[in-house]
Write a structure and sequence with these properties.
Strand content: 5-15%
Bound molecules: zinc ion
Helix content: 40-55%
Number of helices: 13
Strand order of the largest sheet: 1-4
Order of helices and strands: EEHHHHHHEEHHHHEHHEH
């Protein structure tokens, strides 16, 4: 059988579509929990941050942000829990996901739901501006940081039973905000109130804002090598943000190969999350790291093989203009 015969359309099995469900008909509503949480973090970060600034507090902010974004958000929550792009022992998965929870965005189920719904919506031929970050910058900021989208006819979100029945994840979901507390106590013990303000509140405020910023730019402008046909929203690679996002800003690659543990797939694309995974692999803590070539071929995936900036309107004609390209993988 030809390799092309094996290609299939990518589907996320946790999202179950039913007749009439769609990704565009809905309204943006204020989310009190999300809004009050981030507003109080901003308030303490700005007022408390100025009042308590010290070099050691700033260093604890940098170190805790790097650890939670890399080990937690990127490796635990995203590459392992959501995409299962590598294998590891359960105890390590719990630790990594806990670090992901204390980034301050949501619990494990909440993150999986937000990620999967957005990812599904962006692959539809039409989706609400909320999912695609398609409104102007400041409107998108208010929407993403303070509001939720209520779809009129959403698909069903059905996570794997092994996840739904997992007591540890059920507990993490219920207590996601409170999981900052043991770290706050530890920071207080080590460095006083300044370490709590910088290690918890400034970190959460910066991480949540950074997460939105990258989401905004990674769906609006940057370089692309890949085009997902039929998708209303494409991902873009944000080169300058690769280091601080632990490789997550290679978002065009991620739209093309969602199940890959490696996000910086080209030689010159730095991917700190991948470096950490390779070290963990050498130490025997993780295995079966999936690469793009290990994933099933996608019938809707085209290689553009040239760089472009934001140009939603001429994406298709741009592809058609390049003769003789190996346009599929
Ligand atoms: Zn995306
Ligand atoms: Zn993803």
């Amino acid at each position: 059988m030809e390799k092309s015969d094996l290609k299939q359309k990518y589907v996320n099995e946790r999202i179950v579509e039913s007749n009439g469900c769609n990704a565009y008909d809905g309204k943006v509503v204020w989310s009190p929990v999300k809004s009050l949480w981030i507003t109080s973090m901003y308030f303490i970060a700005i007022v408390g941050g100025i009042l308590t600034f010290s070099i050691s507090a700033f260093l604890i902010f940098l170190a805790s942000t790097a650890v939670t974004l890399c080990l937690g958000h990127s490796l635990g929550m995203h590459r392992r829990l959501i995409h299962q792009s590598y294998q590891c022992p359960k105890w390590l998965e719990y630790c990594l996901v806990h670090f992901g929870v204390i980034v301050g965005l949501a619990g494990p189920k909440g993150m999986m739901h937000t990620h999967d719904m957005r990812d599904w919506a962006q692959r539809q031929n039409k989706c609400h501006d909320y999912f695609g970050h398609q409104q102007p910058f400041f409107i998108d900021a208010i929407w993403q940081l303070h509001c939720d989208l209520e779809l009129k006819s959403p698909p069903k979100f059905i996570p794997e039973e092994s996840f739904t029945n997992d007591r540890v994840y059920q507990w993490m979901e219920k207590t996601w905000m409170w999981q900052q507390l043991p770290w706050a106590l530890l920071f207080f013990y080590w460095g006083g109130i300044a370490w709590v303000v910088w290690g918890i509140c400034v970190r959460v405020a910066v991480s949540v804002t950074g997460h939105w910023l990258i989401g905004y730019f990674a769906h609006n402008e940057g370089d692309r090598d890949w085009h997902v046909e039929g998708a209303s929203v494409q991902g873009y690679n944000i080169r300058f943000a690769a280091l601080i996002t632990m490789g997550e800003s290679w978002h065009n690659n991620h739209h093309a190969f969602p199940g890959s543990a490696l996000l910086g797939i080209e030689k010159n694309q730095v991917d700190p999350g991948w470096w950490v995974l390779r070290v963990l692999e050498k130490l025997g803590f993780v295995w079966n790291l999936k690469l793009p070539e290990d994933l099933p071929g996608r019938i809707e995936l085209k290689n553009i093989n040239f760089l472009e900036t934001k140009s939603h309107s001429n994406e298709k004609s741009a592809i058609a203009k390049i003769p003789g390209l190996p346009d599929e993988i």
